[in-house]
Structures are given as C-alpha cells and as structure tokens.
Amino acid sequence: MDKAFLRLVAEDIQAKFGQDISDVAIVFNNKRPITYLKKHLVDVYGQAIWSPQFYTIQEFLSLSSTKTQASPLSQFFYLYELHNALLAEEGHEPETLEEFYPIAEIILSDFGQIDYDLVPVEQIYMELFDTTEIDLAFQHFTAEQQDFIRLFWQSFSAKGHTAVQQRFLKLWKRLPKLYHALKAKLAAEGQINYPGLYRELAEGKAEKGDFLKPYKKILFVGFNALNRAEALLFKTWQEQGLALFYFDADGHYIDDKIQEAGLFIRRNLQQTGLENALGEIPHVLANRTTDVQLYQCLGKNSETKTLHDVLLQDFPQGIPDGKTAAILLADESLLVPLLQSLPDLEVNITTGYPLIQSPIYGLIDLWCEVQMMISQQKKEKIPYQLLETFLSHPMTKVAPETKQRIQKEASEKQLFEIPVAEIDVAQSALPDFFKPIALKNDVIPGINRMIRSLLESMATQGRIRLIESDLLIETRKVLNQLHMGFDKLGTFSISFQIGLVKKAIAPINSAIEGDPLKGLQIMGLLESRCLNFDYIYVLGANEGILPKTSSSATFLPNNLRKAYGLPILENQDALSAYLFYRHFQYSNFMHLFYNGIVDESSTGEESRFIKQLVFETNFNFIKRVQQQTLLFPVQPKELIIAKEGEIWDKLYNRYIVNKKLLSASAFTTYLQSPLQFFLKYVAEIKEPPSISQEFEMNNLGSIIHRCMELLLLPYKGLADFTPTAVLEEKIALVDSLVLQEIGLQYQQDFKSYSDLNSLQRIMHKISSAYIQMYLEYDIANYQSFRIVELENEKDYNLDFDIMIDGEPSKIKLYGIIDRVDEVVDQDGQVKIRIVDYKTGSDKVLFSKPENVFAKETENKALLQTLFYAYVFEQVTGIKGLEPHLYVARRMREDGTLFRNNSGSMVFTDYFLEEMKNDFLDFLRETLEELFNRNIPFKHNPDAHVYPSDPYTLFYKYSVPETISEDE
Fold first, then answer.
1. Long-range contact list for 318-323, CB < 8 A, 24+ apart?
2. Sign of dihedral through CA atoms 425, 426, 431, 436?
3. Are residues 832 and 930 located together in one domain of the fold?
4. Where is the PD-(D/E)XK endonuclease-like domain (predicted)?
5. Tell me, what's the pLDDT at 952?
6. I want to staple 899 with a disulfide (CB 3.0 to 4.6 A). Which of 387, 791, 906, 911 is the partner?
7. Residues 6+ apart with CB under 8 A from 892
8. Are residues 778 and 785 in contact, defined by beta-carbon separation less than 8 angstroms?
9. Cα–Cα distance between 940 and 638 in angstroms, integer?
C-alpha cells in the first residue's frame, strides 16, 4: 500500500508546525480517524509531544454555543404543538398526533437542509403564479435556476388548483411561520439543533463568535461534500489565516469534470477556493494495475459465506503484524449475517449493532403485537405462533418444564389459538408478558417494565452482555423522552403509540468495539472516510445499493432543490462514488462481493462504479462466480444404511428375538422406502409434536373411526342379524357424536358447534358427511348385518414363518381390525367382510395385480387390507373374508370391493382366494428381504413422497440402482 492519507497528513503537520502543536485543533467528519491520526503522529514524531486537540465537526462548531442540543423527539413534539397553534389561527381544526407524525419528519428534514445551505426560508416557500413575478423575485438567480423555479410553479394551474394542490399550498404557506416558531421555541427552551447552529455561525450570529481564539490553527481533514454553511465558514477562516484543509483525492476523478466521484472536491477547490494543504492532487489510480477480485454470489447472505472462505485463504494464521484489513458494508443490513459467518479472527466493529436486528427488538415487537390484539382489538385469544415465539426466544428464559408443558398441551389439543387468561409463564424472565395493559397510557411503561426485567434477569445470571445492556439502556432513554411528550399532549390510541415507539427505537444501535488499530475492522462506507487499509472487502457492491436509487422524502420538489443548490439524488451518487473510488488509491488487495441473484430486492448486477473502473482504469478485475453451495463439503452421497453391526443387532433383536409386532403400516412403509422404515421403526426417529393449521387427515380418520365404533358397538356380538334400517335413526346422532369426539381428540369440552375454531368446524363438517355416507351406503346395499369384530387393536397377532440366513425364523405380525361383519345383500346372499375406512386419496381400483404386489405398489390400501384379512383369518379360523374399502370420496362411483380398472378382476370368490395366496408369497418375500443382511436400507427414488413426510431430507440424494451390462 502507498502511504496512507493520514500518514501524509501527520508528516505535513510535523513539517509545518514542528513540535509546537498543542494549540492546533484537528477536525474530522467523524470520530473514527482520530485514533489513526494519533498513531501516525506518534510514528512520525517518534517522541513524546503535547497532543493537538481533536474534534468532530459537530463537536467543534458546538463550542460556539452554550445551548443544549434538542433531540429529534423533542423537536417533533414542539413542532406538533406549534403546527396546531397555527391551524387554530387559520380557523382550522387541530390535527391529531397520528395525522401529523408522517409529515413532521419530512418538515424537520427540509428545515434542516434549508439551514445547512443558508436558503432564505420565506423565499423558497414563496407562492408565485406567473413568469413576471419569478423574473422580479429571482433576478439574482442564474437563468438555469430561474428555469427550475418556473418548472415547479407551472405544475400548478394559473386558473385554479385541485383539492390536493390547495392543501399542499396551504401547508406551503404555513411552513415559514412554522420554521420561525420552531426557532423561537428552541431558543426559549435554551436549546438548538445542529442545522440552526451552523446557520447562526455562518450568518455571524453565534453566541460565542470568538470560540476559535484558543487555537493558532484549525486543520480540517478529509472533508468532501460541504453544505453552504460549511463552505462559507471554511472560506472565511482560510482568508483569516486560521484554517488548513487536507483533501483526500486523486487526479483521476478530480481532473475529469464529468467524473462524479470528484464532484464535491472540485467544488471545494475551484468554486469555494479552498486550498489543499498537501499541495498538488496525486495521480495514483491511473497508474495502478493491481488485481481486484470480484465475486458474484448466490444471494445476499451468500456474500458473507463466500467472504468467510476468502478470509481463511488470506489469513490462515490471522492478520499479519503490520498489515491492516477492513470489511466495508455497502449494504449495512448484512452486518448480522456477517457476524454469524466470520472466521475466528480478532474484529472491531464500529458500524454499530442495530437494535432492529437484535433479539431485543424482536421481543419488543412481539409484545407490541400481543398488546395490539388483547388490549386494542379486545381479543381473548392469541395465535399459538406468538406464544411459541415467546417460548423459543433466547431472552425470555422460560423454564424447560414450563415450555414442555405448554407445547405438549398445545400439540395434544391442537390449540391454534390460546386463551390469554390461561397462559402461565411465571417461570420466565418476563412473567407478565401476556398481561393486558390496563390503560392506553401504559404502553411505554409496559415496555420499560419489560426492559427492567430483562436487565435484572441478565444480571442475576451473571450474563450481562455489554451490547445487549447498552441497547436496552438506550432504548429506555428514547422511550422516556417519548413518554414525556405523550404526557404533555394527552392520550393516544395504543396502535399509534406502538407505531411511534417502533419508529423512535428503530435507529438505535450499539458499537461492538475492539481495538481500532488491530484486527479486522468492520464499518460502513461512510465511516471509512480518511482511512486506508492493505486489505479491503466490500459487501453489497450491487447496483441499487452502491449507489442507492432512492432519496429521502421532502416537500421541496427537485426543481426547487436544484435552483437553491439543495442536495439531490445526483449528490448522493457522487458521495457514494467518492467513498468507493478512494479505496482503490491505496489498497493492494481488493475484494468486491455482490448478489448475482435477480429478485424483488436485487438487480443481480454489480455496481456501475465497478463497471466504470473496469472501463476507465488499468486495474485487473478477476471475476469469480460462486457455484451452488451444498449442505455437504464434498459431493453428496446417497444415504444408505448397511445391515451390519449395531444396526443388524437392533433390527434382529427387535423383531425376531423380542417379538416386536410388525404392523401393516410398517410393512407398506418398507415397500415405499426401506430407508424410512429404518428411520421410523429401527432408529425410532419420530416426528416431533407440532401445531399445524393445515388440515390433518390423521385426526380426521381417528374421529371417524371412533364415531363409527360408537354407532355400531350396540350390535357387536349379537347372534341375530339386524336390519340396516336401524342405521337411519343413527344418522341423527352423527353431528353431536362428532362434536364430542373432536373435543376428546383435542382434550377440550365443546358444548356446541360454535365453540369450534375454523379448522375444527371444517373437520366437523367433513367427518359428519363421511360417516353419514358410510351409513347410507350400508342401508342402500344391504338388508341386514351382524358385527363380528370392531376396532380391535390388541387381539390379532400371529407368528409368521420366514427364512433368515438360510435358517427358519418367525416374525410376529399384528393387525388392527376396524370392522368385520356379516351382511345380507339385496340379493339375499350372505357375505363376511373385513372393512377398512379411509379418508384420504386411497382407491379400490388397480391396473393389474403385479402392480399391486410390488415395491412401488400402486394400491397401498389393498395390501394393508389383505394384511388385516390374513391375520384375522389365521387367528380366528374364519375363512373367505372379502376385503372392503370405504373411501367416502369415491364409494358411490367405485363401490367398496377392490377391482381392476375394467372390472374384469374383482376381489371376490375364486379370484379373491388366488390373490390372497399371491399376497402371502409377496409378504414372505418382502419380509425375508427386510432381514437379508446383503440388502441395505435405502430409499426408493421412484416412490411417491408426500409433502407431509417428515423424513424427506434423508431422501435428498437418492438415486436409482444401476444395472451392469452383463445383467
């Protein structure tokens, strides 16, 4: 790296002043460079000397006044009262705080710019309607400036104004009065704001006009974009021999009059007439051929992941002694992902950790949302997701047993909404979090109580973290200011107070400071002014971010801003260009990262500043495109579980030695995915309980099965047949029975249909309709019935012979019998049936038997029903069971007997017995494969995977089996 800018400044100070610098003032735009210049002065002088006095520009100019600085909130409340007083004078109704707040920020911003640039307030807000008046009022303006003013006023018709224009003009005419009233109010309170301070100084009205007297010289270092007040003051002090100016610039963008990066320094040197204390502007950029690494990344957060790898390559042993490195955040929203991605390097972060990106803001925001519901909207219940967010938040410190109890109860009852009165989080850092605030004015005290509890909680556990405590304390200060303003002005709605609280605390941040002279420095582009580093890493170097494509809201239209020399969007571009270009003057290792993905927030293009540098300079830009990042560091492999060691022992002992029952669903799970069978039934990785607002067929099926059992239970075991006509009267009981079962399912006592939430009402409607359909089907198709078995989950299991490693073994099969009955059909024939109820997309149809008796079975329900039938027949000795499937969606069209699509193969009589034998062979073959050591557990990539399958991550890299040429 060539000599750093501040090193050159330090050498020039020694050359000009020798060791006599104790009465020299050195002024910067911000605090950050002060430490660096001190270090360079120590190196240059090489001995102890009396230090000069260092200031930021605002600190320095504040020496001219004894008044205190008015906070933004104080100015807002002053402005509100004054504006309503002016409305009263005009005979208008006062505005509410809610109505005024959106425009107050704009008005204060405009007033500030008017003061900084010394614009006559009455003149800029003058109401003009014709060209003659403009010519007379603005004779001292250039023709171009007068044209800008004409363009603005021509937008208002000379013949009359629309309602919107009328309202705008009324506000426009009121603003000069409001400006002067605010000035008077601040003066009466012994306060001032920075724009007002600048204006007083520039106009010779400073309270302490001799504040420069203690200094023999004031050095202004690294200034770029000057407002008109600064330009006037700096020029005056230079002429008086009091000031020197050190400009950090390069001839590449200073000499080229159309180069935006040099716009402001050209103005300072050529228009304002300031002199550069360092002499002639150097020409460095044009002569450099340094490599610049440009990284196109796959998303914003991927920039920080890529940076992590680059830092490890550059600094495998840490940052070498004598070298400096900085990460510059063109996109400051990347701070948090950056902190999560940094390798183990010493860092210093002065860009500040924003409250809005911290867990604290999330907790305050959650409290506000809860209070909006229960206090503003008068709701007695809140969505479970809000409670879950509280339980999972790292700062609430909910006792584990409390968290487990609430989650278990909510899962079992599927509580999508939780009654606030029943929420008990006494065992947490915030036991009163869900307590409704009693009064509208309790919003800010409520948040302050929460902050106090958080600070106490952190202290008692010995875990006070400096950043979090700083953020909490700063938040409390802002809230107290806001509360004082509310107390003076009356009562406001909870929603407005919450909205204002969020706006007021959003800008808060806390510095995460380390050593500013050692390690990796992290800062925004603006904070990097005057500083140089050997290694530079710029994150967010995207068009639309560098530079930004939007400007602040204003009531001063662009044409007027141009006429009066106020900041416009082009000025912002020029400032961004300068901040970016200057790092190419010194750094030898430049790394630029940008988001290459096109989405609603990104163009996917690198900044145009980069393209300009590629075209204008001799830097060697090396573009690198990030490849798709994967979960695994190497080429991912399919998850295959070999049946060996502990895996085999667990499988064999579980089912063969210990006779664990194997169910029909376990059997069909193995067919669909042997890997899922392993995860679910061998490794016993269970899906965690959860709250879902999606419709769950499992719950629906449980309710329907239970209701059908209760309806048919009176007929179980009767010796005689019962006419199906009796089921007519059962239909009237269905609704109340379903309501009762939904209550049992979710462990709640529902008295009526109106007690159900929206999802439960859907479940009630569908369950009732399905059950009624089942009953009506039996009434229409059968004369009478006799119930043999009903919902038996324990009595039907048997040993099944299979071969394992060439030796005979037994595995115990287990069947859940929904219903076995004997029926007399309309032709008088008696049949014995096994019935399975299905609520999903199952069907009785199939294409051909070989597609059923296969790993990729096309009819899982048929295999399960044959499984149940086989177990029942073997246990009871009853033969000839017909498998029937009650699928409510299709039973009117397709019936309940399994058959092929053409109807030529129906599971009845001789064909049924043949299929039962084929099933038996297929069952034995499948189970012997399950216990074949040479066949591992792997997922079948052709199997249908349901969206609700909790094991999909394990199937991610499954591939079809390859077949050799010989085979």
1. 318/345, 318/346, 319/345, 319/346, 319/518, 319/519, 319/520, 319/535, 323/534, 323/535
2. positive
3. yes
4. 662-941
5. 81
6. 906
7. 773, 777
8. yes
9. 11
Residue 25 is which amino acid?
A: A
- Residue 318 and residue 514 in contact, taking contact as beta carbons nearer than 8 Å: no
Check residues 449 and 551 and name the one with the higher pLDDT: 449
Cα dihedral sign, 511-512-513-516: negative
Beta strands in 60-135 (DSSP E): 68-69
Same domain assignment for residues 166 and 179: yes
Residue 196's φ and ψ, nearest 5 degrees, are -65, -40
Q: Exposed (0-12), middle (13-18) or buried (19+): which is 687, by Cβ within 10 Å?
A: exposed
Q: Tell the burial category of 491 from Cβ atoms under 10 Å away from its Cβ (0-12, 13-18, 19+).
A: exposed
Residue ranges of alpha helices (H) inside 161-315 are 163-188, 194-202, 228-239, 251-254, 263-266, 300-314
Tokens 């330009």 locate to: 231
Dihedral sign, Cα of residue 778, residue 782, residue 783, residue 789: negative
For 919, the token pair is 């099933």
- Same structural domain for residues 19 and 138? no
The 10 Å Cβ neighbour count of residue 657 is 10
Distance CA 915, CA 919 (A): 6
Quote the CA–CA distance of 361 and 357 in Å, as a whole number. Answer: 7
pLDDT confidence of residue 463: 40
* β-bridge mates for residue 822, sequence order: 786, 832
Same domain? For 613 and 667 the reply is: no
Is the Cβ–Cβ distance between 451 and 501 less than 8 Å?
no
Alpha-carbon span 773 to 199, nearest angstrom: 84
The 10s digit of each residue's pLDDT in 746-758 is: 778 888 988 887 7
E-strand stretches of 557-699: 589-595, 620-625, 662-663
**Same-domain status, 858 and 916:** yes
Mark which of 607, 625, 643 sits at the end of a domain.
625
Distance CA 198, CA 851 (A): 86
Task: Clarify whether residues 674 and 606 are in a common domain.
Answer: no
CA–CA dist 596, 295 (Å, integer): 9
Residue type, 744: L
CA 299 to CA 48: how far, in whole Å? Answer: 51
Count of CB atoms within 10 A of residue 295's CB? 25
Assess whether the previous peptide bond of 547 is cis (omega < 30° from 0): yes
Q: Give the residue ranges of DSSP H helices in 490-514.
A: 494-505
Quickly state the pLDDT bin for 168 (edges 50, 70, 90).
Answer: confident
Angle between helices 359-371 and 466-489 (to 10 degrees): 40
What is the domain extent for residue 81?
A: 68-200
Per residue in 750-780, pLDDT tens?
889 888 877 788 889 999 999 999 999 999 9
DSSP string, 255-295: S-TT-GGGHHHHIIIIIS---BTT-SPP--GGG---EEEEE
DSSP-derived secondary structure for 114-180: HHHTT--HHHHT----SHHHHHHHTTTS-HHHHHHHHHHHTTS-TT---HHHHHHHHHHHHHHHHHH
**Whole-number pLDDT of residue 418:** 85
- Between the two ends of the chain, the Cα-to-Cα distance in Å is 66
Using alpha carbons, list the distances in angstroms from residue 497 to 96, 359, 504, 659: 12, 21, 10, 66
391/462 same-domain check: yes
For residue 616, the tally of other CB atoms under 10 A from its CB is: 15
How far is residue 404's CA from residue 381's CA, in Å, rounded to a whole number? Answer: 20
Q: How confident is the model at residue 158 (pLDDT cuts 50, 70, 90)?
A: very low
Whether 523 is covered by a domain: the verdict is no
Does residue 527 fall inside a structural domain? Answer: no
When the pLDDT of each residue in the chain is averaged and rounded to a whole number, the result is: 87
